[in-house]
Amino acid sequence: MNDLLRRALADAHLTEAAVAARLGVDPKTVHRWVAGRVPYPRNRTRVASLVGQDEADLWPQLAVADVRAESAVIDVLATYPHRWAVPRTVWQQLFGAARDEIGILAYAGLFLAEDTGIVRALAERARNGVPVRILLGDPDGTSVAERGSDEGVGESMAAKIRNALVHYRALRDVDGVEIRLHDTVLYNSIYRADGDFLINPHAYGIAASHAPVLHVRRAEEGDMASTYLESFERVWSGASPMT
User: Fold this and answer.
1) Gap between the Cα atoms of 157 and 141, Å rounded
2) Which structural domains are found in the chain, ordered by start?
3) How far apart are CA 158 and CA 138, in angstroms?
4) Of residues 115, 129, 213, the one with CA closest to residue 174
5) Which of 78, 166, 175, 219 could cysteine-pair with 215, CB 3.0–4.6 Å?
C-alpha cells in the first residue's frame, strides 16, 4: 500500500475514479498505484501535479534509486563491434599513458607486434620504469592447435605467434619487459595499461580480429576489470618464461 499517495489523494479530495478520469486511464490502474505499484514516469508527473506534491514525496524509493544509480561504478567506457574497428590511436593512448604496468594476453596479437610504433611505445614505457608483461600462446601447445582448428586456419595460428615473437625480439633485451608463453584456453584476449583494459572476447569459429572489444576501467575491488585482472594473473602464473 502506498499510504503517501492515498493520503495525498484524500487531502486533494480526489477519488481513484476522479484521478482515472482526469488522466484517461482505467480506474483499476489507479487502484494498483494506491496499492503500491509505481506508475510510469509520465503518469507519476501528472499525478503529482494533480495533488500538488513532488514525485519524491509520493514515491521516495525512486529518489533513493536515483542516488544509487548516480553513485554506481560505470566501468564499461566504450564498446567496439570488432577488434579491427578499434582506432590505432586508442591502442597508442592505452599503452603510451601507462604509469604503473602494462599487460598483454593473447594467442598471437600479431597486429600489435607488427606495429613498430606500439613496440617502441612498450619499450619506452619499460625504460621509464613501467613493467611490461606479454603473454602469447605456446605455438607448440595444444590450446593453440585447437584454436587454429576452431577458426579454420590450421597451423597458421602457430605461425602468427612465431611471427609475433620475431617482432618482439627488440623488446627482449629491454629491462622491465618479460615475455611468457602459455598453453591456456583463452576466453578473452586482455590488453591492460594500469586500470584500463581492452577486452577482446573470443567467439567460437570467429577470428579475434572480428570479435567485439570492451574498454573497461578498474574503479574498485570486485568490479568487472578486477575479474579480468585475476584471469590475467592466473595465466601468467602458469606460463613459461621465454629463454
Assistant:
1) 11
2) 3-69 (1.10.260), 76-241 (3.30.870.10)
3) 8
4) 129
5) 78
Residue 89: CA atoms inside 13 Å, Cβ hemisphere, count?
0
Residue type, 188: N
pLDDT digits (tens, 9 = 90+) for 36-92: 888 888 888 999 999 998 888 888 766 545 544 444 455 788 899 999 999 999 999
**Cα distance between residue 6 and residue 58, in whole Å:** 9
Q: How many residues does the chain have?
A: 243
Over residues 153-190, the pLDDT tens digits come to 668 888 999 999 999 998 988 999 999 999 998 889 99
The helix, strand and coil proportions of the chain, stated in percent and rounded to the nearest 5, come to: 50, 15, 30
Q: Which three cell numbers stand for residue 218?
A: 578498474
Single-letter amino acid, residue 230: E
- Contacts of 195 by beta carbon, 8 Å cutoff, 6+ apart: 217, 218, 219, 225
Cell of 96: 603510451
